[in-house]
Amino acid sequence: MMQIVLISGLSGSGKSIALNVLEDSGYYVVDNLPAALLPQLVTHLRGAGWMRVAVAVDMRSGASIAALPSQVNLLRDMARDLRVIFLDARDDALIARFSETRRRHPLASAGVSLEEAIQREREALAGIAELGHRIDTSDLHPNTLRTWVKDFIQVEASAGLTLMFQSFGFKYGIPLDADLVFDVRCLPNPYYDPRLRSLTGRDEPVIEFLRKTPEVTRMAEDIRKFIANWLPAYVRDNRSYLTVAIGCTGGQHRSVYLAEWLAGRFRDQVSVIVRHRSAARRAADREAALAHVAAPEQTQ
């Protein structure tokens, strides 16, 4: 069975990182292909024996990007396993990345600022963002994005919906890729227990603390019932992916615990992915700090 992964998204959102991951995983990778040429490319590569193909289609191909939705429908008939990843990021994150790399935005021109170019691209891609799995890369370390892309392609192909539970910290902002957002900041916070402060919602002492808290149990059940009641409606709407974001203050204890707990309740019904956005950010920051400390020693 041929597997096709389409990558699209905003310039500067990490498409090159995603393509490199797929190439390293054995995919035949094509970057910056006009959308109208997708069927011909797939037909050619299938004839050449390639069964895993990754293609990036974005605003660099100009007006042809408008043909992508219709081409996606056509490709679904050509390959049973078609996956679409749309990479997004906040404007401030994109501006910072272009400033750091000094790259030119593909829509920038004389009289058009970087901010205006980003807004024009966002408007042009608004319909495409709904075609597949959306990932907000605003605060993601490149290694985290690599891991998330690997996790995405390793999930078994399903004709139904993939349900993703994502924990996050409100102090970092609500993820752009969230379809449903639940605020659990009203629950008792393990952070204020010195023994639990450095742990996460995946550690047994924190799990035990939250499991024994009646408010947490009620909140968890209420969210589970809401998702269970409305999941069939999202399936009927032909949604391929549904991202449920669970947010607490820092994204370390309560949201992580509830994301894991909810994932466990739905794994026997649909394909499930779990991601911990703020926890991954802290892990990346720790790695960077350790690397910075070790760097002087390595140069001596």
Automatic annotation (TrEMBL):
Domain RapZ-like N-terminal intervals: 2-153
SUPFAM superfamilies in the cross-refs: P-loop containing nucleoside triphosphate hydrolases
Keyword terms: ATP-binding, GTP-binding, Nucleotide-binding
Chain sites annotated for binding GTP: D58, M59, R60, S61
Pfam families in alphabetical order: PapZ_C (PF22740), RapZ-like_N (PF03668)
Keyword Amino-acid biosynthesis found: no
Designated name of the protein: GlmZ(SRNA)-inactivating NTPase
Positions that bind ATP: G9, L10, S11, G12, S13, G14, K15, S16
Keyword Magnesium: no
GO MF entry, a single one: ATP binding
UniProt organism field: Thauera terpenica 58Eu
Domain RapZ C-terminal: 162-278
Tree of life domain: Bacteria
